[in-house]
Write a structure and sequence with these properties.
- The chain is an alpha+beta fold.
- It has five helices and six strands; from the N terminus they run E-E-E-H-H-H-E-E-E-H-H.
- It has helices at 28-33, 37-40, 45-48, 69-73, 85-124; strands at 2-9, 12-17, 22-26, 52-54, 57-60, 65-67.
Length: 125
C-alpha cells in the first residue's frame, strides 16, 4: 500500500510505501506508449501533477487511471535510467532534512514555552 506520492518533475514521482520503502518512478514511457486516450491524456503535465493516493494506490482523475502498487513496489516503473536520479535523490533527502529541522524547531519552541510556564508556577508559589 502506498502511503504518499510527491510530484518531482516531468513525469517523475517519489512514492513512499506504508512499510517505509521508497521508489522513484518515471511514467513517461508508460504514458507516451499508451494507445488509450484516457491514459495518454496524462502526458499533459497539468493533469499529471494532480496525482494523489487513493485507497493505497496512486490515481488521477475520477478513477480515470491508477497504477497497481505492486508494479511500482517491484520496480516496473523505476527511474533507474533517469539522468536526474541522483539530483532527485538529493532533493528528496534535503526535503526530509528540512522536515526534521522543522520538527526540532517546534520541539524547542514547545520546550521553551513549557519552561516559561514552569518558571511562572515556581515564582507564584
Amino acid at each position: 500500500m502506498i502511503n504518499s506520492v510527491e510530484y518531482i518533475s516531468d513525469y517523475l514521482l517519489h512514492i513512499v510505501f506504508k512499510d517505509g520503502q521508497e521508489r522513484l518512478i518515471d511514467l513517461y514511457s508508460f504514458l507516451s506508449s499508451s494507445t488509450y486516450p484516457f491514459i495518454s491524456k496524462y502526458l499533459d503535465l497539468d493533469l499529471f501533477k494532480q496525482v494523489r493516493v487513493d485507497y493505497g494506490t496512486i490515481a488521477w482523475g475520477d478513477n480515470d487511471m491508477d497504477i497497481n502498487p505492486l508494479s511500482i513496489y517491484y520496480g516496473e516503473f523505476e527511474a533507474a535510467d533517469s539522468p536526474y536520479k541522483e539530483d532527485i535523490k538529493a532533493v528528496v533527502k534535503a526535503r526530509k532534512l528540512k522536515e526534521i529541522d522543522d520538527r526540532m524547531k517546534r520541539r524547542i519552541a514547545r520546550a521553551k514555552k513549557d519552561a516559561q510556564r514552569e518558571k511562572k508556577m515556581v515564582m507564584a508559589d
